[in-house]
Amino acid sequence: MKTVTSLVVALAISLALPTAPASAQVFSNEEQSCALYGRWAVEEMRKAERLGCNFPNARQDFDVSRHVNWCMGQSDATMRAQATTHRNNVAAICGRQGIDVRGGPQPAAASALPSFSNEEQSCALYGNWAVGLMRRADAMGCDFDNARDWFTPQRHLNWCMGQSAAAMRNQAQTHWNNMISRCSRRGVDFVARISAPTPAPAPVAAPALALPSFSNEEQSCALYGEWAVGLMRRADSMGCDFDNARDWFTARRHLTWCMGQSAATMRSQAQTHWNNMVSRCARRGVTFTR
User: Which domain holds residue 21?
Assistant: First the structure.
């Protein structure tokens, strides 16, 4: 098949692919309809791009006016079938990159994906979640050659706060799809790998002498609270899973809890808390060590 260097030229080429559903958009070659077509055509490509599809001639292909002008030079019959032709062309370009945009890649269980907003607290959660997913994909050997500077929760947090609330509601799915795309470039099935059950690693303690010992007395509990939160902040910065424990990032809460425990419980609490960090990090494919 002849290589297509510009999607605008490719729009006129009918590919031998399954046709789009009967509900596809219908356009004509009149100016007003062509204006609608131009915006629609570019949005279809942007949707594919968000799934990881690469358009080598993006500067031209994403130019709405170029699509409008092309449309006005076509016959009415051509434009009536153009929605199907355009979708098939986009699907073919993405398909050659190993990306199926007809249905869009889906997670193993859609209900497992969290929902975020563009508020600071939610963005902080998003940053940790996004990096955690990236670390898991990276451990599989997926392609992050051009995205190493995104392995910090803070960068995702800052980006998130600049997005609309609507965009962030769908961002978990978008990020998931991006992982699928990055893995497919290296021949890795992200969904199958991430869904496969793996034995949980046994907690690895730091050397016994490195962990402090606490009691249930107020002064010792105050020290425990500071120590516990400090350890959590370190784990959090590594992208570990604290989605259900954000209200424990205050030393006062640990202090209050500590004073309600037995002295025996608190003597072993440093080890218990350490093991909890190991477990929370393991859920995101992160190894928590000194």
Answer: 7-95
